[in-house]
Amino acid sequence: MQALLYDAMEQEGAQVAGYSRGKLLRESWDVWHLHWPLEHVVSGTNVYATMRRLLTFSLALKMARLKKTKIFWTVHNIRGHEQSHPLLEWMFWRIFLANIDGIICMSEIGRRELCRRHPQTQSIQIFTIPHGHYRGAYPDVISKGQARTALDIPADRFVALFIGQVRAYKGVLKLIRSFAAAQLADATLVVAGAADDQTACAIKQAAAPASNVRLALEFVGRDDMQKYLRAADLVILPYTEILNSGSAILALSFDRPVLVPDRGALAELARIVGPDWVSLYEGELGPEIIRAAVRWTKARPFASDARAALDALNWERIARLTIQAFS
User: Fold this and answer.
1) In which domain, by residue range, is 35 found?
2) Number of domains making up the chain
3) Separation between Cα atoms, residue 144 and residue 224, nearest integer Å
4) Best exposed site among 61, 62, 64, 180 by fewest CB in 10 Å?
5) 43: confidence class by pLDDT, cuts 50, 70, 90
6) Are residues 155 and 292 in the same domain?
7) Would 138 be classed as within a structural domain?
């Protein structure tokens, strides 16, 4: 996402450079734009290393403020998913939110959730600018048939796909069990994405009894993304916790309908692209929701080459809005 945004901003006349502490010390910049600060600072299992990163980050914030550099944050998450260091995360928010000049939320619900969880942000200027699409960002030159051949999937199968990093909060275990219990005779679920050893072990155990579940628990490279997305009839992203979903927008960028929970900004995404592209469900994922989603996908009133309406997520527009926010 960041590369697409900054390329578009450069096309609009902005000067962009990657962050480093050295640049912050030696050079003068108008804006320091952060995307995933919590994940970079409060991560890993080593509490002492995390404390050192937090101290270094705090000093960098102070240096930016001394140099009159505006500090902007684009909100991807408002809390850590794993929360391995809750006290240090609390300290992070106290330090970080006291030092920023502007916030970009990618949805109105994201803005509301941010202010609810972190009331101090109500005194900071907040801009709502959507997450851009990925159309054209990945190779996309093969047909559905070619993708099926590459993955050794029969042409007449209905293919549901989960794609992206496999983590506990993404609900993949529940998806596998629900898909198997749905007993869809002509359908296959493909799970593609990297997982840590513990998660991979649990996923393999859940999938072992299901003959219609295929696993590719490895990083999906840029060139391989099209194989999985072009082979799919439906992308299922059963997050148990979500604010924004780049994976949902990625699927729509390949013109693949998505099944997602009615959580976070996903209802707003459904309003942008329309209910024939985004199917929302409430509560926990289960076999009947899977069966209903398959029926919905097959009944969609579109030709196979239909394209999702993503004009509102155009990077040129988003770049202009971002530059205006920084001004």
Assistant:
1) 2-133+314-326
2) 2
3) 13
4) 62
5) confident
6) yes
7) no
Mean pLDDT of all residues belonging to the chain: 94
The verdict on 126 and 150 lying in the same domain is no
Confidence of residue 24 (pLDDT cuts 50, 70, 90): confident
Tell me, yes or no, whether 158 and 57 share the same domain.
Answer: no
Query: In CATH, what number is assigned to the domain containing residue 272?
Result: 3.40.50.2000
pLDDT tens across 278-288, in order? Answer: 999 999 999 99
pTM: 0.91
